[in-house]
Amino acid sequence: MDLIENARLQAEVLVQALPYIQRWRQKTIVIKYGGAAMVDDALALQVMQDIVLMHFVGLRPILVHGGGPEISEAMKRLGKQPTFVQGMRVTDQETMEIVEMVLTGKTNKRLVSAIHQQGGRAVGLSGKDGNLLQAQKLESEHDLGFVGEVKQVNPEIIHSMLEGGYIPVISTVGVGSAGESFNLNADHAAAAIAVALQAAKLILMTDVPGVLSDPDQPSSLLSEMNRQQAQTMLDSGRAAGGMVPKLQACLTALEGDVERAHILDGRLPHALLIEIFTDAGIGTMLK
Asked: Could you give all domains of the chain from N- to C-terminal order, each with its CATH number?
């Protein structure tokens, strides 16, 4: 392919993206980042490129992240064995200190730095900054320690960052009424932030193709779901493991008037751009 033909094809791609740029310009998009895409450096670089491009064409992306694999790795290095109950990390005081150290001190700053390397401007926040994510202990039949749930979102600091031209990067450590730290599920935290900001989209990036009608058959991917289908999948037990909080988060967002919720395979190169700026779409969209 000669240079002129290659340039023509690139121009066609840009023109095809124009209606989507116009539609989503100045709209807030909350992106929860996790799974294998987060620990693979090459994929992480592509995700940051996508977010910076979204920012420069006029969208308002907000990145919310967890860091489960990195937390577990840090715990093991410190001689502490990770323990999970129904998919949730049992978080005693020592574990909470490790969680906060990894999420706020390491993972968050790594993502901020990656955005800067791609020409964007980002500010790292935790849920404790500006009382962004006020939390309370998650009530459960098992004592999970400092595992919390979002009680209230105070989005003023996010608005300030967006108005200043920055991309907010938020680690999911919440703050209790006595100033104590809580470990929050990143899917649920992202949904709460999306509702508080009346976002146009909540996008959950993970390491599975999307929602499968048959978990053992990748070809059974559901490209679209409505709320009733998602609730039925939860009630019937067909959704299991990490898909449960993702579907719950999507329902929370939709019930809070977020326009669309998406579960995307973050292992696919430029998954965000394909979902937002093309007709094709990938993963599962809930509406």
From this structure: 28-286 (3.40.1160.10)
Residue 197 to residue 188: CA distance in whole angstroms? 14
Cβ neighbours of 152 (radius 10 Å):
13
- Exposed, middle or buried, 163 (CB in 10 Å: 0-12/13-18/19+)? exposed
Partners of residue 130 on adjacent β-strands: none
pTM as predicted = 0.94
* Count of positions (residues) in the chain: 287
Burial bucket for residue 36 (CB in 10 Å: 0-12, 13-18, 19+): middle
Contact 287, 229 (CB under 8 A): no
- Other Cβ atoms less than 10 A from the Cβ of 27: the count is 16
Average pLDDT across each block of 10 residues of the chain; the chain has 287 residues. List them in order. 80 88 96 77 89 97 93 93 86 95 94 95 96 94 92 96 97 96 96 98 91 80 91 87 90 96 90 88 88
Smallest Cα–Cα separation from 39: which of 78, 81, 61, 68? 68
Closest CA to 112 of 70, 34, 51: 51
Read off φ and ψ for residue 229, nearest 5 degrees: -65, -40
> 243-255 and 227-236 helices cross at what angle (nearest 10)?
140
Neighbour order of strands in the sheet with 284-286? 122-126, 167-171, 60-65, 28-33, 201-206, 260-265, 284-286, 224-225
